[in-house]
Write a structure and sequence with these properties.
Blueprint: E1 6-17, E2 20-32, E3 37-41, H1 48-55, E4 63-68, E5 71-72, H2 78-88, E6 89-93, H3 104-114, H4 119-132, H5 148-160, E7 166-170, H6 178-195, E8 198-202, H7 206-210, E9 214-219, E10 222-224, H8 227-233
Parallel strand pairs: 3-8, 3-9, 6-7, 7-8
Antiparallel strand pairs: 1-2, 1-4, 4-5, 9-10
Helix pairs in contact: 3-4, 3-5, 4-5, 5-6
Bound molecules: adenosine-5'-diphosphate (ADP) and magnesium ion (MG).
Magnesium ion binds next to helix 1.
């Protein structure tokens, strides 16, 4: 047995807005295996994005344990957390948009540049990644010259170019038509599998859920049993 890429145990997160206390996660347990594709569903406000932010070391849990590659993340200094995030995680977040003034090539190259990868190797890896997502011909274009599906493929290429152990994707197909959404998902699956990356995807998209290895439902900050599990138990 490989150790899981990501483990959460009893994770709580509460936001305070003035006088208001907003519980976002109320005791979440989760384990994500190497290479596994896990869909996280649930109504708006159920805590999906908060969970991804905690897994991505963007936010800290108030209580509970988070292990990324077996390392307890609460114990990390900010510097170590930044390093671990950079080396281990790829993001496909709606909010993490492409840099509009940079070409497609430079957008995908950016994580490797930041990681200090030598230029010749960067060129080779970005070229191969753009080839893999079918955008080699668009390398010199700016993102605004591309369709929504193409842009999301650039975002996937950027997330995967570092060969991260974990890819976190928040509603990656939200703005795409269903055909393009399927293509984007297949691409993530294919490329992710080739690299052995694990995926944690927050999504409302039922088709996307069907293509994942496992689905977890969040409600009011808790993981509830899936209907299928309840039916099987009945
Ligand atoms: P989802 O992604 O499932 O829609 P979120 O994780 O975004 O859910 O939100 C879960 C709950 O936490 C919601 O009630 C939301 O309003 C609240 N929340 C999320 N982020 C913040 C924040 N930065 N400040 C205050 N409340 C927040
Ligand atoms: Mg969200």
């Amino acid at each position: 047995m490989h150790t899981p890429v990501l483990q959460l145990a009893g994770v709580h997160k509460t936001f305070r807005l003035g006088q208001h206390i907003v519980p976002a996660l109320r005791g979440v347990d989760l384990s994500l295996a190497r290479g596994e594709m896990l869909a996280l569903t649930g109504p708006s406000g159920s805590g999906k994005s908060t969970l991804l932010h905690i897994a991505g070391l963007i936010e800290q849990a108030d209580a509970g344990q988070v292990l990324l590659q077996s390392r307890p993340v609460q114990a990390l200094s900010e510097h170590e957390a930044t390093r671990l995030r950079r080396d281990t995680i790829g993001f496909v977040f709606q909010g993490f948009n492409l840099v509009p003034v940079m070409t497609v090539f430079d957008n995908v190259d950016y994580p490797l540049f930041i990681a200090g990868v030598p230029v010749a190797e960067r060129r080779r890896r970005v070229g191969a990644m753009l080839e893999a997502v079918g955008l080699a011909a668009h390398a010199r274009h700016r993102p605004d010259a591309l369709s929504g599906g193409q842009r999301q493929r650039v975002a996937i290429a950027r997330a995967l170019v570092k060969q991260p152990a974990l890819v976190l994707a928040d509603e990656p197909t939200a703005n795409l038509d269903s055909h393009t959404a399927s293509q984007v998902l297949d691409l993530m699956r294919e490329q992710g599998h080739a690299q052995g990356a694990a995926f944690l995807l927050a999504t409302h998209d039922a088709r996307l859920q069907q293509r994942c290895d496992r689905v977890l439902h969040l409600r009011d900050g808790c993981i509830e049993n899936t209907p299928a599990v309840l039916e099987a138990a009945a």
